[in-house]
Amino acid sequence: MAEEPKETKPGFQNPVAGFGVTFKAMFKKRLTEQYPEQQKTTAPRFHGRHQLNRHPDGLEKCVGCELCAWACPADAIYVEGADNTEEERYSPGERYGRVYQINYARCILCGLCIEACPTRALTMTNEFELADSSRANLIYTKEQLLAGLQEGMVDTPHSIFPGTDEQDYYRGLVTEAAPGTERQVAVSKGELHPSASPSGTSAGEGAEA
Ligand code: SF4
Ligand code: SF4
């Protein structure tokens, strides 16, 4: 004959005991975050939006090698490299990243791409507000990913610091743009030399967005 289950508490206590977890939770510290009104500071090494870094004179660190794209498990990066010329230079060496895109509809923010980058051109910021309702807006272009200009920098393209080579940039010998450094005309982006413009259009006009 089967044994009758033992009743551990008197019958009238059972409904109250059923709310035990609820009552305990009522007095615990709340975990609700009032986002986006109150933003929590991320951990310093949080993996957020990527950034393409510059050398201290403003030249770009990316050499267009595509190693980041090959390392990406989500196939989220697209890179096209191109040759620098003396008239239109974006990085100190031979090549630069002409096209650079990261598709945040694919990216899982794993950081393998930044580990693969040989020049520390690619790093990750703490910015995490990347959601968007449009797939097209989730593809970030080089212009969006490129770091802003800091003091002592001149925007690309511009010439290499006189008397230095690419290695000197990585040795930390270039700390700012050489005096008198001027931005060159980005002919590859459709900009016109002022002298070539029939209406006298300035060099900056006509550039790609
Ligand atoms: S963080 Fe990971 S998924 Fe995102 S682009 Fe880099 S390698 Fe690809
Ligand atoms: S970001 Fe780094 S790994 Fe990617 S193409 Fe540029 S230099 Fe190469």
SS class: little secondary structure
The amount of helix comes to 10-25%
What name is given to the CATH topology?
Alpha-Beta Plaits
The CATH level-2 architecture is identified as 2-Layer Sandwich
Written as H for each helix and E for each strand, in order along the chain, the element string is HHEHEEHEEHH
Description of the structure:
With about 210 residues, the protein is largely without helices or strands. The protein has one domain (about 50-195): Alpha-Beta Plaits (2-Layer Sandwich). About 15% of the residues lie in helices and about 10% in strands. The strands form 2 sheets. It has a 3-stranded antiparallel beta sheet. Strands 1-4 form a two-stranded antiparallel ribbon. It starts with 13 loop residues before the first helix and ends in a 39-residue tail after the last helix.
Summarize the structure.
Belongs to the complex I 23 kDa subunit family. This protein is low in regular secondary structure and 209 residues long.
Write out key terms for the chains shown.
binds iron/sulfur cluster, Alpha-Beta Plaits, disordered C terminus, little secondary structure, 209 residues, two-stranded antiparallel sheet, 3-stranded antiparallel β-sheet, elongated
